[in-house]
Write a structure and sequence with these properties.
- This protein has one domain: Alpha-Beta Barrel (TIM Barrel).
- Helix 2 runs parallel beside helix 6, helix 4 packs parallel to helix 12 and helix 10 packs parallel to helix 12.
- It is built from twelve helices and twelve strands.
- Helices cover 38% and strands 18% of the residues.
- It has 303 residues and is an alpha/beta fold.
């Protein structure tokens, strides 16, 4: 969506970035020139350049080699239940500040005590107020697998994830060209990370399947418009091949939403906002885990 009139580039001309196969000239000062996703990734690339200057890739690989052995994410997300991925999330582009979370490790420990099967940690700084230090802090106190939730566009970020103790890494199809998606999936698996490949449309799902994704997350939130449509999962889940783990992302407000996603075929749900804004995250996670373990969660789901 473009704003009215002719776009005027800042001094020095436009910046160019590649999002899902599109080379686009973008002006970050024009709010109509880029989607939310594109703007986030521009910031991610800028921050990434700074980190690469501080920690060379060879040093990062050495740190990754010293990191704890990866946990089995596939086992955590499988089984005869609906698994719960509980998220450490301070802020979001759609809602702004959600929770201060001064101690992400303590929150993650509460999640684990409530029965969470996987902990997701936002590490994107500008829009989600997350850090890699949060990831390392969580790894130090929990035994369940940890997902690095970020906008990963290079293999350097995968090495960062392993170096800070992650067991899974998010790869967003809409943010990557197909060759990059295939390459990042292969690289992640080669260094012990389970790639969670996120989609929002049937076209993105086809790309994820073609790339060999073994875990596919269907995000009810359109990252380009921030609108939520909980029916997206039900539309796409039947098209996900048998044997691929299906995760419903966004829109889980409580057990009733988990059960709705379960009936549509979800193997797991990812929950963030409702947990960090609630009064008792441990109890809220436990309610979700209990619902996910109930036989009703597998009725009419094809499991």
């Amino acid at each position: 969506m473009k704003g009215p009139g002719t776009t005027r580039w800042p001094s020095g001309g436009p910046q160019t970035d590649t999002i899902a196969g599109q080379d686009r000239a973008v002006d970050r000062r024009d709010p109509y020139a880029v989607s939310v996703l594109e703007d986030i990734i521009l910031g991610v690339r800028e921050d990434l350049e700074d980190r690469q200057k501080i920690v060379p890739l060879d040093e990062l690989k050495e740190r990754a080699a010293r990191a704890p052995q990866p946990r089995d994410a596939y086992a955590a997300l499988g089984g005869d239940r609906v698994s719960v991925i509980a998220e450490v999330k301070r802020s979001s582009p759609s809602k702004g500040a959600l929770a201060a979370i001064a101690d992400p490790a303590a929150l993650a420990a509460d999640y684990e005590a409530g029965g969470a099967h996987v902990i997701s940690v936002l590490t994107e700084r500008r829009r989600f107020a997350g850090t890699l230090s949060d990831l390392a802090a969580v790894r130090a106190v929990v035994d369940v697998p940890i997902l690095r939730k970020d906008f990963i566009v290079t293999s350097y970020q995968l090495w960062e994830a392993r170096a800070h103790g992650a067991d899974l890494a998010l790869l967003i199809v809409a943010a990557l060209e197909q060759p990059a998606l295939v390459s990042l999936i292969e690289r992640a698996e080669s260094i012990g990370l389970a790639p969670l490949v996120e989609v929002h449309t049937e076209e993105e799902l086809d790309r994820a399947v073609d790339a060999g994704a073994k875990i596919i997350g269907v995000n009810a939130r359109n990252l380009k418009t921030l609108e939520v449509d909980r029916d997206v999962f039900a539309k796409l889940a039947p098209k996900i091949p048998e044997g691929v783990i299906k995760i419903a992302e966004s829109g889980v407000r409580g057990p009733h939403d988990l059960l709705a996603y379960a009936r549509a075929g979800a193997d797991a749900v990812l929950v963030g906002e409702s947990l960090v804004t609630g009064r008792d995250p441990r109890a809220a996670v436990n309610d979700l885990v209990t619902a996910g373990a109930h036989p009703a969660s597998r009725q009419d789901s094809g499991h």
